[in-house]
């Protein structure tokens, strides 16, 4: 009886972590005040859900064999489907992402300029080599291009709108993304998100992860340049009303979450991450 129960448990855990948790976590808005531990929790949920799905078949074969054909068939179907979709999603997302970044980088090299004068001095205080590129066209925008030839890109409209402290805050925010390698984090989430069949995906989950990465970069920039400068920069860059920017400004206005809350979410993330490990150990004992 222990074998079928363990198999059913790992199948249920996979379904809960991949289908239910992404619908519930975005509603836990208190996590936005501690974006670092919150992103760790999101990663733990995603990785553990995938791991449980992949473990379902081996656990079923190990613990039930042919004694429970329906349960064995369900576990096999879940593991095979997850493995196939995960490999396809990883190849497609990784290939497309790197191709688009390479084209974008080539375009910036062709049309982008460099900062000069006082603005260049501001950039050197924040951005690491290869520095900042400026494009003439477009709305007030700032973003980063990660990779071996990483850089920060600004539009001229952004430079016209920002004063020196605000520019320093914007550059610190983008440098925070680069230093923390948020591109790899978002790529991981995208691969796991697209590994789920389209009718079952939760777009709110990807939106929440993006918001948390922005909130974490805001915290990094706030530490490097100050709260007021960053808030003013967000308002200046937002232009027309933006729900995400409004949320980020509200988060900046609140004090960081208490150490106890950060520790509790971190422990929860570690417990979730330990779940597939515990299942594997129990199956092979």
From TrEMBL:
The keyword Transmembrane applies. InterPro entries: Beta-lactam_resp_regulator, Peptidase_M48. Its cofactor is Zn(2+). One of its GO terms (molecular function) is metal ion binding. Keywords: Hydrolase, Membrane, Metal-binding, Metalloprotease, Protease, Transmembrane, Transmembrane helix, Zinc. The chain crosses the membrane at residues 6-26, 38-60, 66-88, 259-284. Residues 122-185 form the Peptidase M48 domain. Binds 1 zinc ion per subunit. Pfam families: Peptidase_M48. GO terms for biological process: proteolysis. It comes from the Bacteria. Belongs to the peptidase M48 family. PANTHER family: POSSIBLE SENSOR-TRANSDUCER PROTEIN BLAR, SLR0241 PROTEIN. This is Peptidase M48, Ste24p. The lineage of its organism: Bacteria, Bacillati, Actinomycetota, Actinomycetes, Micrococcales.
């Amino acid at each position: 009886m222990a074998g079928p129960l363990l198999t059913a448990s790992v199948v249920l855990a996979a379904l809960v972590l991949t289908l239910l948790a992404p619908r519930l976590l975005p509603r836990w808005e208190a996590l936005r005040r501690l974006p670092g531990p919150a992103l760790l929790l999101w990663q733990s949920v995603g990785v553990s859900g995938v791991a449980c799905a992949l473990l379902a078949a081996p656990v079923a074969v190990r613990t039930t064999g042919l004694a429970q054909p329906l349960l064995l068939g369900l576990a096999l179907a879940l593991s095979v489907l997850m493995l196939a979709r995960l490999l396809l999603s990883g190849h497609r997302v990784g290939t497309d992402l790197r191709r688009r970044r390479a084209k974008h980088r080539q375009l910036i090299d062709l049309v982008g300029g460099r900062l000069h004068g006082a603005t260049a001095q501001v950039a050197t205080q924040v951005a690491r080599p290869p520095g900042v590129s400026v494009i003439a066209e477009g709305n007030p925008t700032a973003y980063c291009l990660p990779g071996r030839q990483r850089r920060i890109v600004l539009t001229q409209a952004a430079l016209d709108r920002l004063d020196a402290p605000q520019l320093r805050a914007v550059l610190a925010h983008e440098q925070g993304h680069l230093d923390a390698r948020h591109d790899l984090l978002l790529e991981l989430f995208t691969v796991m998100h697209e590994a789920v069949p389209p009718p079952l995906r939760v777009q709110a989950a990807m939106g929440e992860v993006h918001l948390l990465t922005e909130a974490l970069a805001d915290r990094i920039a706030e530490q490097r340049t100050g709260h007021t400068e960053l808030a003013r920069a967000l308002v200046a860059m937002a232009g027309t009303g933006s729900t995400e920017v409004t949320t980020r400004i509200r988060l900046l206005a609140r004090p960081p979450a208490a150490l106890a809350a950060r520790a509790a979410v971190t422990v929860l993330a570690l417990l979730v991450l330990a779940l597939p490990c515990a299942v594997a150990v129990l199956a092979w004992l």
